[in-house]
Batch of 2 targets.
Target 1
Amino acid sequence: MKIENSETKLASAGWIVDARWYYALLAYVLGLITRIDFVHVNALVILTGALAVVMACNVFFTLTLRRLREADFTARQLNILNAAQITLDLVFFFLVLVVTGGGLANVGHSFFFLPIFVSMIIFGFRGALVVAATSGLLVFISIFSTQVIIEQIFSGQIPKITPELSSAVAQSGIIFMIYLITGFFGGHISRLIKIRDVHMHDQIAREAEHVDRLEFLSKEFDKSAKLLVRRDIELTSVNEKLTQLDKMKSEIISIVAHQLRTPLAAIKWTLKMLIDKDVGTINKEQEELLLKGFESNERMILLINDMLAADRLESGRIKYTFVPVQFEDLVQSMIRSLLTLATKKSIHVELVMPKNVLPKIKVDPDKMNDVLQNLIDNAIKYTPEKGSVVVGVAMEGENELHFWVTDSGIGIPEIEHDKIFSRFFRANNAIRSATEGSGLGLFIAQSIVKRHGGKLWFESALDKGSTFHILLPLT
Amino acid sequence: MIISSVGVGTDKDSYKAGREACTQAMSGIPADQKINLLIVFGSTSYDQDRLVAGVSETIPDALLIGCSSAGEISSQGFSTEKSVVVMAIATDQMRFWGSMGNHILWNPQQAGDDYANTLQYESHGYVTSSLVFVDVLSGGGDKTLLGVTTKLGDDFPLFGGAATDDLLFFETYQYYQGKAYKGSIVGVGISGDYLAVGVSGHGFLPIGMSRKVTKSEGTTLFELDEKPASSIYKDYLGEEYSGQLHDGLLPSLAISYPLGIYSQQNNNVVLRNPIFVDQKGSMTFTAEIPPGSEIRLMISDIEQGLETTKTIAEEVLAKLGGRQPKAVVVINSISRKKMLGPHVDEEIELIQRIFGRDVPLIGFYSYAQIDKQPSEETPLHNGSLLIWALAE
């Protein structure tokens, strides 16, 4: 796994150049302190000359690095620069080692650890091993040069193997091994670091990609949010206008209905007086006609009353008074009042009551009576003659009461199920079977049940019958 | 024993409406019980002094506190026409201490300090909680409340609301004893054997990206992300609707979409409604806007709003720990009223269903809600619902 982490390498090269100002000077000072002057050459001159070259090279490296940083550089250029740096260090430390006596007798050999560590950082495993081996070799050369062996070889003499020389060679062998081990383990650690760097680099790259993606998505979400808010404000604005219109319409209905009530009442009592023969006799045909007129007028009054009730419910003008009541009593008395209607159509009405007395429930009795009347009256009205209606009350869990009315009537066509609680809506088969009805009864019932915190729903099958359920909380 | 009862007055005459509401409330308290406290909320379309006189002259011995409103709430639901609602409380196990601080316009903190000082002096330091009604139009509401909390302590349970003026944003009234005041803080300190619980929440959710307050001073917000503050509304509402921000005195659109300020201590969001937007785009609020705060536009809907109501009411009930609430005060916000629209009645019905329909309930729609929690930075909230319940 290789990565071109040139930026990191460039930074490392920069640190080494910076560090060289200090360690080169340190090596020079230590070299001066522990120097051994040779016969022909002054150690001070060698050291000072070498330091001057190193400093000059370091200036060159600094300038080169600056140029590389400014321009697009290649990995090869950087590698050459780094190789030159290490070579310079090796040569310089070799000279320091030579003028301090060579081998392990002085501190010079310890400076070789520096190029080994540096090569670990910039070249990795192989580089570290090569520099370690070179360092070891230079230590050997320093021994031979200081022990005058090289001179002897060049002058054709057989080098003398003295005990000092043997000891120095053995010690150098050890330092050679230490360099190699340092290079090996250091290179290995460097390799591990590089692998970790690769992982981290990948991870950072992936996370940077995620961040970019998140930023992009956030901007997109913000655009969606703007759309949503604008849509919301448009809908709210339209809704406000509709509410205003609805309010106006309710006011018109209310005014018209109130205006119609008085003349309708006058018509009612006029017809009643004629039918009751209070103003003179009438023949049978006239009576039949008057009765039809009277019934139509009654239907009209019922419709007007329903319209007013629906309007009051919608506008929130109706105030509820919740009192604890025995719900079964309300149901029983409602069935009693509607029994005449059922008997007329020979409909069997059955009341299913719980074995134990139910707990009292908080309802507005007048409004709840309207609900019960609407549901039971509908059941009787839309059930054919000799049919049956079952009314039941029971507890549902601990906190709710369940009321239901099942009839064997005409049922509600499935297509009209979702419209049944709308204002002025009557199912087609309902219009055909019974002419009376404003289409407001179920709307009113649902409004009242809702205000009680309850739920009203139904199940129905065409021509088989319907069941209307109410679930009411006890408190 | 704690007994309370609620009355509603809708007479066209201010004095008669006050008297009607008070008489109705009085009728629910047994004749042999002395009424100690009257809480009054009335529409600003009434003559305020005559309204308060109508209430206080009906029961002169009782302590009277309250304020003007932007919609009155009672056990009978939300009032669809101008009205006054009165809650009468009779008790032999609690004591009520009335107090007032004036001149919020000149020095809001001093007004709050005066309120707290009087309360402590009158009660000899026995007061253990307080319900306050404050004007937030003439001065920073949070500064006024800082005056109160500095004196009474950070842990002192403080609840209440800001008086309103039917969304005119001009001047509000605070009722204390037989008079209606302007630019004041009024309230009641409570001591004795009782349990008072208050819970608030808003149910608004953030929408869009957050913006940073780059320039603000006190209650005025100048810049968000180095752009004029009102640009947040212009960006989201578009040019067509943002023009309405400058319609009259009322930034009505901003009421529907309050701003949410993220707390720097925790993840809580405090809502803020601007009460004034100037032509340069600066916005004035009822409380301080700290520089560097993170701000987002907030939105809600009816379902979310009602769900919050349910959560708050249930939390109050849970905090009462099985004790039956004897009186409930609902301090709701104008933002929630606008958001719920025709469903405001459903909210009250929901609260009544949770507490029980026979529990006397009174409330009003306010410009700000006060709920001092020890962990919170500010007791002043906008766009929230506060339910305060009293139990034995």
Target 2
Amino acid sequence: MKAKFIIPLLLFVVLVGFLAVGLNRDPREVPSPLINKPAPAFKVPQLADPNKSFSPEDLKGQVWILNVWASWCVACREEHPMLVELGKSQVAPLIGLDYKDKRADAMEMLARQGNPYNLSAMDNDGRVGINYGVYGVPETYVIDKAGIIRFKQIGPITKDVLDKSIYPLITQLNKA
Amino acid sequence: MIPEIGHFALILALCVSIIQGVLPLIGAQQGRREWLVLARPATQISFLLLAISFGVLAWCFYVNDFSVLYVAEHSNSQLPTVYRLGAVWGGHEGSLLLWIFLLTGWAFAVAQLSKTLDEFMVARVLGVLGLVATGLLLFVLGTSNPFERLLPAAQDGRSLNPLLQDPGLVFHPPMLYMGYVGFSVAFAFAIASLLSGRLDAAWARWSRPWTTTAWIFLTLGIALGSWWAYYELGWGGWWFWDPVENASFMPWLIGTALIHSLVVTEKRGGFKNWTVLLAIMAFSMSLLGTFLVRSGVLTSVHAFATDPRRGIFILLLLSLVVGSSLFLYALKAPKSTLGGKFSLLSRETLILMGNVFFVVAAGSVLLGTLYPLLIDALNLGKISVGPPYFNAVFVPIMVPVLFLMAVGPWANWKTTDLKTLLKRLWLAAVLAFVAAIAIPSLMGEFTILTALGFLLAFWVIASGVLQIIRQCKVGMPTRSFIGMQLGHMGIAVFVIGVTMVGAYQEEKDVRMAPGDTVTVGGYQIRLMGVGPAQGPNYQAMRGTFELVRNGKVQELMYPEKRNYDSSTMPMTEAAIDAGLTRDIYVSLGEPLEGNAWAVRVYYKPFVDWIWGGCLLMALGGLFAVMDKRYRLRVKK
């Protein structure tokens, strides 16, 4: 066996090694550049009562959770039971951001499925979403007492994410 | 009950494929006649079984059997019949079934058309194909059974992604797969000849028409996909360097190198090891493409559902098939003999150089495609690689290829002297330079890159025309010769299209209310109005535009914004007025305040030459395959 004829095989072995490692990574999981950065400020009307407004400033000094949702989003319906559990646990205020939605549709969905949120804010034109780098609904952020984003979940939160990431993080942040 | 027949046929096919893959190979190795004669009947039976299985799945779609999970997920009772047929391969399970069906189809064709071929060779080729089929059948039955039941049955299906509800998409996957899978035949011939230790000209002669046929399908499949993206996605682009596009392009590049290398092996007995390696690589690239598309290791606009088990399985299959072939190559290749000697300046050298460029091009596409994965695997961060990388790397590699393409056919085998070459080519060079300066000047804007594009395109065309003239003086040209000329001209036509669109297209994104006019490329496009329209399974807003030139209305255009009943995502249906020298492309964006709309209008000069060039290449392939010397052999 001459050495040069083994080269293709060796190159291929290296390639397979990389592919095998790549299989265990999720290419869609892009680290948010906003992690450990201050949560962008905004002031938008509340869903339940558009005369009132909501701003992250209101929750300064508390650890809170921002969940981006919409009535048109199928994955949000899947996520809903987890949000109900999260809301019931009372570990931190759960704020909804109703993204690019119609108020009537959103109200109807909450009425039908139950409202897990302390309150929801309306982001009709998606401007808040742009500042938060939302590229798929649902997304969930954990924001600490100083208003810094500490965690971001892209896509529905699962039981696993809740137990392994969100709860421990909130407990830790609450102690700080 | 009927879906179970399909499932059962698949299980039987697995058993038959194991027989087809094991006994003939052992039989050929040990000289057991009674084992190797099993190859043909086993191949025929497994093709029949796959045809049954595939037919059953198509039937389930036809009768809207929503008790089959795959049907419920990809079809809908409102879906027009032709798209229900397209939906058979509209998802993961069905498209894999199509893959295997076509694989057994190719094997069947080899079994039928190889009556004059040495029995041992046939047994080995069919055996290798049987092993590949076995692996894929295990994959389908183990992780992706298309006949899985949904109990209780769904009321109605989820329907096919509206993007895929298009005639272009009905034919794109089968064409592409015919190409992908067709390279398995070249691969099987290569492995068979490595096993037998008979790497000779006969082997090359046998695998040439098969390889070229697969290449034709792949060319057409890629062109169809590109054309579909152009008119259906509403972005007006024709190639995006998306990982899935690259996955189909890499086998094409290697396949193109392979069909050229096979010529040398057949005619001069040279490059044997290189040709075998290319044959292995071409099919490896097909399998790698399947892995990349089906495992979800890369992000792509072709967002396919992913399941980690599937990824692991295909990776295993890929490692086994490619790993064992390359191991066999490392063992056997050193024993092959060298072909006829050739000098530094000869047709052999020129083809070899072209080949090296093709392989380097495929390598650079592979690197760009896998780079995000490599970087992530090394924990160096998440990045994406976009068109700027590919354009910067790929285009310069193609420049020497185009240059060589015009020179190669003039060179003699064994040796050519530079003087003769220059004597034959000076006129082509002069013509090319004239075109390179004249055309951009006439179009009104001269850049070096544009001039280079025309220089190379007309260099190839002029050289080709001169060759044809010379050939006709000697006598009737062979089909192989015509095929080569058409193929090379196709590339030139393609390059002209790409250069024209790249340099002279006009794009306007404007806000238009009824009565407004926008001007591109000397045409006025006037919005007459936007109104509702009703399709079989969608509602649309349809715009009416007048295409005006020199004050006269040439054409009415109707772009649409569709909302399919089954999907929340609105679809853009562009209106295109196609022509030999330009396309006018109008697509509706979002509705704005009042009755105004965001409208995107393109003027795309010579854009259809891009696909026209691909058609010419495929036609060239067809001529080459129909060359007399293959037909005689087949008929005997």
